[in-house]
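Much of our argument rests on the idea that a fold can be written as discrete symbols. The amino acid sequence and the backbone structure tokens for this protein are reproduced below:

___
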Amino acid sequence: MIEMMRPILEIAVIIPGMLLAYLSVKACLRQTPFKLVLWMFPLLLGISLSGGVVCYIFQITTRLILIPILLLLMLIYHKTLQISIWKSSSIFLAVCAVFACVKSLSRAVNAIMIFEPDIAEKQLWLCVKAGIFYNLICLSFVLIAWYPATHMVRILIADENFAQTWYIFWILPLIFIGLNQFMVLKYQSTLYTGRILQIYIVVSIVLLIILTLFYAIFLMMALSLNKNARLQQENHFLSLQRSRYDNLCAAIEETRQVRHDIRHHCLQLSALAETGDMEKVKEYLLRADSKMPGIDFHFCDNQAVDSILGYYSDHAKQEGIPFLAQIDIPENFAGDEMGYMSGALKPSGKRNRGKSEDRRFQKKDCYKDVFASYTYSSDSG
């Protein structure tokens, strides 16, 4: 029974590993944490027990069992989240890299506890005490990483901006996993030669520290990139508001001029009415109507959305392109979210000058609960 516990303890680290992986993605779950725990914990416990039993019966190392188990858990992990596969796979591999470094350290502790080269040479798994040490160190790392994972890392993952560092981050944990596998000695008795055991312990600890520092550097870089992206979106939104403000100022000035001329129009109409010449009255009204502004400068009550649509309306006017906008905004929509939407609402069509064909350019964008569509229609010729 004790012998069977040894491979079970080695595989059981998948439980704290999955807990650590889910700490930073609580807001991205496809189901509630309670429902996830109800079926995830029995699944992980069953995998640990069955995997340990298989290793004990066939007398094989846990490495052969862990490879398919980890691939299966990575797939389950991604399917239970609403994030990109780049993020989910990177987080999962990051946890695997940390536990691989801890496994190397536990392997050295196992050699210290046995301290008999002949016995250590025949061991397929860690001894029970080393297995308990392995699980305790993994649980300790979960507790240490609890706060940063549930705060800074969670903010990074939940951010709509996708830092480019996610595309290459997964390489780092794979390198450290490979280094720890390379450190596995073919003959366990080699650890007892000279100062090999002391060097093995130091190298394992140094690798774990370096890996942690790399994670911290990546976190700071990604947070900085996302902050810069948000600032660019806010600057773009401010430029839209500035353009909208200029358009509104021009409209106000034009309205003031029209009001200034109203008295003159009234006097002129009164004079024409006294003569009884209705044709001249109609002709004068047509001329006055042609000078009135024909653009509606107000699209909706939401100032942020109105600013964006007003910007593109003015852009279409300058290009001589008819502009049609339709938008559906929920009542609980936050105005500060328009920084993201303003980056998405960019016209994709271009006027095709010099050709006689008709072209229509339409783009539809959906950001959360906001739906906006606008159409550019141009008759080239």
